[in-house]
Specification:
Elements (H helix, E strand, L loop, with lengths): L2 H4 L11 H23 L9 H20 L15 H8 L7 H7 L6 H16 L3 H26 L22
Helix pairs in contact: 2-3, 2-7, 3-5, 6-7
Length: 179
């Protein structure tokens, strides 16, 4: 575990049920897929949904890098955290092989895209007036992203790393400033 995390471990669940891990990952997968759908028709040079392709590549790269820089130094490395990523990190990378500062920067991947995609898709929808399905998917995207806050906070609230993790949604008030 990264040394910067060791003094801030608190009581938490040692392992999470597989059903929880599957549901939370399907939740994120749904949001990433909806993003791809919303970006699909925004820019299509040569008839290719270029933004969706770039988005898919970005998701894969960020997920791999997050496992290296965050999960390889986590308390749950090799264990079943609420996302199951500790097990994935252990299968892919040596323990403590990442850089926690880089991991913190990569965590913005979960913060920046939702408002940017929402605003871009809304502008597209107003200008191009797409079919009702686009409006429905945009509304679903906004609802799922709003729902992600309590879902993430619940998982983080049960995590032993909630005070140490820079991306924790469940830090105590006195530890909101970070490590």
């Amino acid at each position: 575990m990264y040394k910067c995390y060791q003094d801030n471990i608190v009581a938490g669940d040692e392992s999470f049920p597989l059903s929880w891990v599957i549901c939370e990952n399907l939740f994120y997968l749904a949001m990433w897929t909806l993003t791809g759908f919303l970006l699909w028709s925004l820019w299509m040079p040569f008839g290719l949904p270029l933004l969706t392709i770039v988005w898919a590549i970005l998701v894969v790269i960020c997920q791999i890098l997050l496992k290296k820089h965050n999960c390889s130094g986590c308390y749950y490395y090799g264990k079943m955290c609420h996302l199951g990523w500790g097990k994935i990190a252990a299968a892919m990378f040596k323990q403590d092989s990442g850089n926690p500062k880089m991991g913190t920067k990569l965590a913005f991947f979960y913060i920046l895209p939702p408002p940017l995609v929402s605003l871009t898709a809304l502008a597209f929808a107003i200008i191009k007036r797409p079919a009702w399905i686009y409006w429905f998917m945009l509304a679903l995207f906004v609802i799922l992203n709003a729902a992600s806050f309590p879902v993430r906070k619940k998982g983080c609230g049960l995590c032993a790393m909630r005070e140490a993790c820079p991306g924790s949604a469940a830090k105590s008030i006195e530890n909101k400033g970070g490590i």
